[in-house]
Amino acid sequence: MPAPQTPQELAEALRQAASQGHTIALSGNGSKRRMAGPIPHADEDLSTAGLHRVLQYEPRDLTISVEAGLPWRELTRVLAENRQMVPLDPPFAQTATVGGVIASNSSGPRRRLYGTARDLVIGMQFATVEGKLVQSGGMVVKNVAGLDMAKLLIGSFGTLAAIAVVNFKLSPTPEVERSFLLSFESLANALGARDKIVGSVLQPSAIDLLNPAAGATIGNRTWLLAIRTGGNAAVVERYERELGRLAEGEAVALENARHETLWHHVEEFTPQFLEKRPDGAVVRASCTLKELQAVMQSFEGPAVARAGSGVCYGCFEQSQAASGWLAEAVGRGWKAVIEFSPEERTALELWPTPGGDFGIMQRVKNLFDPGSLLNRGRLYGRI
Question: Which of 172, 187, 203 marks a domain boundary?
């Protein structure tokens, strides 16, 4: 099947495949094939990578509309020319498409300040298996008409419909940015400093915690708090003074290239870990700030946490070890999944406790894709 070049061609391709009862493997650039469960072989492979135009960009209104196949790195480049951004910080940013980032609900360190895709997407156009193009939301930040329909597609991993166009609200790039690395001998001390930061007047855009195994990848085998700050020069100088009082040693300040290198490493920690580990796995646990200590202590291998929002990522050399950890996590009442697993289908239970709203998810799937043709096996093998 030729790759669609327009939303209309995408909708027609879906209609043709569905009318013949063909199963469809829907993707962007395929950068997250190991995320949320492998896709079984499908009758048709359909990519949105051919839809890669910037449709409408209004720098003064802080809005942009782009097609789903636009590479994320290209979106970042276009916005940087006007010192603007969509601060999602997704992993696989060099190869991911806009649609893939949104369909997987990917985010990174700055989610604490800016939120996730559900906070930044203001409109969307998507194609259904019936061949229809549906418009939800618009290009106005305060326009919420139909927005909930778009929110259903965020994090759906292509199991409901094909995202064709995404509209974002934008943020200006801070005048000055500076990062700080604070090292601690114990997890308790690191989280004590985290609590003081969270409770202070100054609010960094990112507060990430690296355990000693993760810290070793940047040459510091201690518990590390990586703090990202931004604002005018006076605000950033105040951050430096106040954060310096919290570190057990000297707070290391990073600017310019060193600042960018640090956050690229943190954002791409999962892809870098998985790159040479075909049987490797990464689990994601969502917890309260109070629970974060117990969750991070449970990881023997490298682990990174969004310490200001309670999302932890633990890396395992072997997928069976991740499965064992997940079983214990469920027993402790933690909300967790194996987010990245081997590409080959295995007997691993990736999402053992989908929650009480899973029945609603199944009904939504039936409304959008009653033949269950789209991306069978995604959403951790549950949909």
Answer: 172
Q: Are 352 and 327 in contact (CB under 8 A)?
A: yes
Residues 336 and 281 in one domain: yes
Q: Please tell me the distance from the alpha carbon of residue 191 to that of residue 187, in angstroms, as a whole number.
A: 6
Q: Residue 334's domain spans which residues?
A: 270-340
pTM above 0.70, yes or no: yes
Q: Are residues 58 and 72 in the same domain?
A: yes
CA–CA gap between residue 303 and residue 313 (Å, rounded): 6
Check residue 380 and give left, alpha or beta (phi > 0: left; psi -120 to 50: alpha).
left
pLDDT tens-place string over residues 173-186? 999 999 999 999 99
The CATH number of the domain holding residue 233 is 3.30.70.610
Output the domain CATH number for residue 110. Answer: 3.30.465.10
The answer to whether 343 and 35 have CB atoms below 8 angstroms apart is no
DSSP string, 55-81: EEEEGGGTEEEEETTSBHHHHHHHHHT
CA 69 to chain centre: 17
| Residue 264, domain member (yes or no) | no
Distances (CA, A) of 266 to 130, 136, 290: 41, 33, 23
Token representation of residue 203: 């609010």
Residue with tokens 């929002």: 309
